Amino acid sequence: MGSIQVENYDVIIIGAGLSGVCSLYHLRKRFPTWRIRVLEAADSVGGTWYWNRYPGARVDTEALSYAFSFDRELQDEWYWKDSFAAQADVLQYIERVSEKHNLAKDIQFETRIKSAHWQDSDRTWLFTDKKGAQYQTRFFISCMGFLSSPSLPAISGIETFKGEAFHTSRWPKNLNISRDFANKRVGVIGTGATGIQTITACSNEPSVQSVTVFQRTPNWSAPLRNEEITLEQMKEHWKNYDALWQLCHETPSCFLHQADPRKSLEVTPEERLALWEDIYAKPGFAKWLGTFSDTYTNREANKLYSDFMANKIRGRVHDPKVAESLIPKCHGFGTRRVPLESGYFEVYNKPNVHLVDLQQTPIEKITEKGIQTSDGKHHDLDVLIYATGFDAITGAFSAIEWHAKEGHPLLGSSGTKQGEKAVWVDHRPQTYLGLTACSMPNMFMVLGPHQPFGNAPRTIEHAVSVVLDLLQYCKDNNYSYIEPTQQAVDEWTEHVVECSKGSLSNEVDSWMTGVNKNIKGKTARSVARYSGSAVEYRRRCAECKEAGWKGFTFAKTPRTSNI
Ligand code: NA7
């Protein structure tokens, strides 16, 4: 038997989505002599925008702000056709960035990592992929995404369905619904952001025979208001990019929207209504993020706004019973991520679109021919779409077998025997600045747990800049080892939890609070993202740097090293 060849690198990046592409671009520029490799499971770049090619997939962040700011030339020639770009256009943009900078030469596609071992003797990580190939690296950057590990519903009989079944995040490349779903009865499970886009697209496809929506929890959703951008308009936008980046820099989640500083209960009912109507008519997340400042911390304020939104739904759905089923009763508007829609509620006015309210009639099982609900009804289906979301935040990490420092697993239980304790017990991440973790030396995370999410390219660019500064510090000082101190991790994690207090979102089950009932061990809420503002997050990162990277332990010269 031949010995396994191990490839050696200075930095390995896992994932070639927006985070991986951005990391690679900057690493190459900053450290031109370093050996850098990106390992990517897919056969091309794109990440989220590669995998999520389900019908109707579209970004609900303004496309103009959903791009990299580092390539001025590309920025000044890229023509976004829609104010909110379709999946294919975002993917094309990422492909263009990759092509323009010849990034693919450093990306190894169709490579899924199976295990990762910290090797303390020479302070390196050893990765093994599913085919058995091995890669050794001094540093690695996780760019695996926080919504990249799809989860199927834990429903009995799921394996028995004989029709076609798809998870939205594993949508076949060449599937065309007008051709492939013609005259078919389509069922969709899930009404999150993905389900709402998929349901709308399938319902508006004239060749589809029927669409049956299986809704467990209704979601608040509001109009996206996408519009085409003309070339003339785009030329104007090209002149204004600096102002646009600056605005994103100033808002709490790097979107183009800022909350109204007034409090809901301090203004008159007329003033309240005026603002709500105004933002309802605006595009994008204005109606989520542009409302009164107390909407997501004050129960009464949230109830008032939710009532306003409920009436909008009632006004759009003809059958009052269906409308009531579509209005969330157990959580207030905006306390979960608000899906934006383009005619979603109106699809329920079509005679061939049926809503099955699973709170009234839960699914009993999936059968060979469809879905059986508790009222004894069998819903016959030819196609079943699982818009059931992701093993969010920690899911991509769970898919790899980690042997962290001293052999500890990354995820798992607190263990009973000595040495079994996981680094992140019960899926509760413990990080320093959301970028690093104890017992995981030389690892950095982009869009990792405890970072502010929001407008992804904006937060990615910042996280990458901090990671690069840390690597620069290591290089300048000949450090081969970096790990946050336990104290820094404890303090940061406490700060993250502290920031989340008082937020109504924390009282609701969703991927944002780490809950996924389909996954064992993910039924309790946790604080998985930094809900202090992005502005404050950047300030804290800068403060850490100014203090000589306070909170990190560095070490020189590996004991032995062959890289
Ligand atoms: P989400 O937002 O997690 O939505 C998943 C949906 O699937 C949600 O409606 C779930 O209902 C439903 N679901 C999950 N499991 C089941 C079972 N077993 N039975 C019935 N219904 C089920 O995922 P998305 O992909 O829509 O969006 C994720 C993010 O991606 C989105 O927020 C954007 O940021 C991009 P539940 O609410 O759990 O009752």
TrEMBL record:
GO terms for molecular function: flavin adenine dinucleotide binding; N,N-dimethylaniline monooxygenase activity; NADP binding. Keywords: FAD, Flavoprotein, NADP, Oxidoreductase. The keyword Oxidoreductase applies. It holds the Pfam family FMO-like. PANTHER family: DUAL-FUNCTIONAL MONOOXYGENASE_METHYLTRANSFERASE PSOF, L-ORNITHINE N(5)-MONOOXYGENASE-RELATED. This is Uncharacterized protein. It comes from Penicillium atrosanguineum.
